[in-house]
Each structure stands twice: as C-alpha cells, then as structure tokens.
Amino acid sequence: xxxxxxxxxxxxxxxxxxxxxxxxxxxxxxxxxxxxxxxxxxxxxxxxxxxxxxxxxxxxxxxxxxxxxxxxxxxxxxxxxxxxxxxxxxxxxxxxxxxxxxxxxxxxxxxxxxxxxxxxxxxxxxxxxxxxxxxxxxxxxxxxxxxxxxxxxxxxxxxxxxxxxxxxxxxxxxxxxxxxxxxxxxxxxxxxxxxxxxxxxxxxxxxxxxxxxxxxxxxxxxxxxxxxxxxxxxxxxxxxxxxxxxxxxxxxxxxxxxxxxxxxxxxxxxxxxxxxxxxxxxxxxxxx
Length: 288
Prior knowledge:
Blueprint: H1 2-15, E1 17-20, H2 26-42, E2 55-58, H3 61-64, H4 68-72, H5 75-85, E3 92-102, E4 128-134, E5 146-147, E6 175-179, E7 184-185, E8 195-204, H6 213-216, H7 219-222, H8 227-232, H9 270-287
Antiparallel strand pairs: 1-6, 2-3, 3-8, 4-6, 4-8, 5-7
Helix pairs in contact: 1-5
C-alpha cells in the first residue's frame, strides 16, 4: 500500500492532481445519494457568480449520511493527504464536506485555487488537499471538474488558457484528488441531467477551516463520532497548545460530564517539551 501511495503522491507533486480508481464500492455512493436525495431536492440554487446560479451546494454531510464517514476516513486517502500536508503541520483537520449538484445549463466555474481563502504565503507549502467523489460519472459534457495540470508549480499565475484544462473521466467509486494550489473549477453542464458529486477537503490542522466544524458538529453531535473522526473535525489540539479548552484537549467536551474547573495541561511537541523541561531544570540548578 505504501508503494501505491508513493506513486499517487509523486503524481500530485508532478501534476497537482491524480485519480485513485475503484477505492470504494459503487454501492456506497449509491447509498449516500439515497440519503442525500432529499437535500439535493430541497436545497435552493446557489446565488453569486462564483458558486453559480445553476448549482446546488450543501455541507454537514457527516450528519446527513452515516456512509460519508467511509469516505472521510478512508485509510488510503488519509495516508495520501497526510503525506502531502504533514510536513507543515502536526495533524490534519477536516476542512469541509460538501455535496455539489451542477444542473443542465450551468456555465463553467471561475478557475481558482482553494488555498487562496487563506492569506498566507503561497508556493512554499500546501494548505489543503481536496478529494472529489463522483456520485454520477463526471464527463466533459455534464460539468466534470476542470483541472490545469502543473498549475500548482506557480500559484502566482492567476489564469491559464481554457484550452489547457483537462477533465478527468471518473465514476462512482473513484477518487479525484487535487491540491489546494491547483487551478480548477467546475465544468459547464451541456447535458440533459445534473452532475452530482461530493468534495471532502482536508487542511493543515492549525488553519481555520472553510466549514466551521465545531458549529456544524457541536459536542452533542460529535460525541457519537468515533474518536478518530471527532479528532479530524477538530476535537483535538494541534501542538503546541492550539485549539484548547481551558488548557485541555477539546475532546473533553465530548464527555458526559465536564468539570467546571480544569487544570491546564501542556500539549507540546517533543522538542518543545524537552526545551521547557531543560529550562526548568536550569532554573532549579541556579537556585541550588
């Protein structure tokens, strides 16, 4: 498995995107579509030039379909995401889960890089990785995701020729993975049927996520998640001491009873813990 992840990571480094074929059974996506069908029907069309007036979008998918956890926690995809992001963080976090339905008549979306939602330096680190899961097959005609191969190499380039875009043909069960630094956009739908898909995005654990996970999945909801999923949505500290509650890991909020008064507890990287301990020892030595 690690050799396969090496290959996909190399493609992401080279091209900015890759496809993992047949990583889940198509019936999983069929079950998710059944769970989400009412939301697709009831959610109003988007407003604004970026989201598109012929597109529907909604989030909070982990509470709308229990099957979405199979996608969000897919071990092969998590390993690939961590391979791309852990050089710049202590742990990854869930950035968003979003269902997207592009209707006939939709125009192509503005090409963009998702990393631009954060105003930090670009080109020296990766901020996020997107995983697109088709519910219906993605084609050029029905609005499949457009990608500009190699566009992640120079993120300062705002636009590239439309003729250079590629639309990977992916089907339910496949995973289309692309970096937050890769120029992309939804395609125009010139077919007669809607195109449905799910994007699950992971970001550096110290960033504020696109979808505010702690409000989308408050403690009364997240306490029913597995510990691993709860940590991914934000109920875990990012060392050193970032995202704490009264100086403790926010997972304490998932307990049946939370003490009113808590002691603050260090959550440091090993090097920081060692440095702090050495400083304390030196102070004690000076005091004799």
